[in-house]
Each structure stands twice: as C-alpha cells, then as structure tokens.
Amino acid sequence: MTIENKVDVTDPEGEKKKALEAGKSAIILHGQGFQVKSSTGSDVVVIRTQD
Amino acid sequence: MAGFPEVFIPLMLKGDIAFWHDFANVTLVAGTTIRITHGPPARGSYYIIFLGNTGDPRRTDTDEVVRTTNAFLRHWLLSPFPEMASQPVREHQDFFMESLYRPDYPVVIVETFDHPMVLEFTNNETFNISWDLTFWMVETPKKVYDESIVPYFKGQYNLYKAFGDPETAKGMTEFFKLWAREDVRKAWLKRLGL
Q: Under an 8 A CB cutoff, do A30 and B37 touch?
C-alpha cells in the first residue's frame, strides 16, 4: 500500500479528515525521529505538523 | 512507574541526559496494519521511550471508546531489566483493552543503535479507530544508563516482582490495583515511617 508524506501541515485534523474520506489511514506525527515503514490493508497519509 | 521517573530529574539538572516530548495520532482504517520506527540513537547512546495513552482509542464514526482484542499495538522490547538479559528482545502485544488505557501503564522501550524502536498498530475491527499517543523521550550515554538508570529500573522490577510476575505484567497490574486502594497506600506509607 502507498505511504504519502505531508510536511509542515498547519491543519492536521483537516488533512486527517480528507484521508479518511478517501479510505486512507492517517498518522499525525510531531517529532522528526518517526518514520512510517509499511502499511497493509489501506494506504496511509503521514501528516507532519510544524515544529 | 506511575508518573515521571524520579531518577531523571537530577540527571536532567546535571545535564547528563536530554529529555523531550513527541506525540502522535494514529487513525487506522478497518483491516489495516501500520508499522512505524523511530531513531535509532547514535552508537553508545540509549533512547528510553515512555509511550503513553493520552486519549483512549475511539471509533471515528461514533466517538465511542473501543475495547477489543481485535485491535492492538505490537512492539519489540529491549528489556531494561538485567534479570531479563537472557531474552533481551521480546515481542509484546497490547490489546485495546482497559489495562492499556490506564495513565499509569506506560509502555517503556529502550532503544539502541542496533535495536531501533518498532511499533505496529493493527485494526482488525470492522470500523475505523483513532488513538492519541504521547512519547516521553530520554537520550542518555551508556555510562549514565548503566550507573544511574539501570539500578532505578531494577528497583521498579523488584517492586513489581513482589506483587507477581513482571514478565507478564501481572505484577504491575496487581501493584496498581492495590495502590489504587487508599487503605493499602496508607499502610505502606506507615510501614515506611511516612
């Protein structure tokens, strides 16, 4: 499944809502050390907030 | 470890360790498994990560708290406890059940260059689930870890061991069940002369 990265997002909840409406999972992350390595069952959108 | 580990406060004040905080919101579509990693730290350093629940897992459609064994967090433990050195890396699975939601039940993960943290979230339910998590992160040189932090963890281990089996977390569960009772807390403090 695909992993789509979005950085410096100012409206993480809005991005999450859009992902769910498209049938995708979503992870909002604060912290640069985390990486999404894989997803099975659905595509995932990685939403990084501004530090 | 019902709160911030006391040992870190003097170590932070001395500048021996670094502390910071991250958070994540994980929203899993039904039938999804997502694996995330963190780090690793530089060789010779350790990350100690306290993963806590800041909002119970909820259905995204009804906002109801989810209690199920069909959704869970899997992670791999590099045990901080010397008593478990024979099995230094173990797989552990936390179901989205009551015990995981207790604020005093953080998942403690020790991360090294050779053993970066891996978290795997699975939702085998028929509905979407969203979960808020917090990460307290500590970076420490191996020397400080060995001399100051391992003895602290060892004390915690022995405390939980007094109440049951720490490897299955039964000791921890029994400890917190008893500690929630005011009469037990008062009796312990009296025994300690406090």
A: no
Number of domains in chain A: 1
Contacts of A31 in chain B (CB under 8 A): 22-24, 135, 137
Domain that residue B85 falls in: 8-161
Whole-complex ipTM? 0.94
C-alpha distance from A46 to closest chain B C-alpha (Å): 10
Is B31 part of any domain?
Answer: yes
**Domain coverage including residue A13:** 3-49
Token pair, residue B186, equals 């008062």
- The pTM of the full predicted model, rounded to 2 decimals, is 0.79
Tell me the pLDDT tens digit for each residue of B43-79. 989 998 888 888 789 999 999 999 999 999 888 766 5
Cα A12 to Cα B34: distance, rounded to the nearest angstrom: 19
